[in-house]
Amino acid sequence: MGAAEPRAGLAGIDPREADIDRTAITSTDLHGGTRRWWSSLTSDRAAAWTARIVALLVWQLAGSQIDRIPTPIEVGEFLSEHRDLLWPNIWVTLQTALVALVIILVVGIVLGFAMGRWWPVRYFFTDLVMVLIALPAFIWALLAVMWWGFDDIGPIFVACISATPMLIINTRQGAQAVDGDLQKMSAAYKVSMTRQFRTLILPAMSEYIIAGFRFAALAAWGAILLVEFFGSEEGIGFQANYWYDAGSFTGMVSWGFVMLVVIVAIDKLVMEPALRRTRRWRAESSSWT
Question: How far is 207 from 275, CA to CA, in rounded Å?
Answer without folding.
Answer: 6
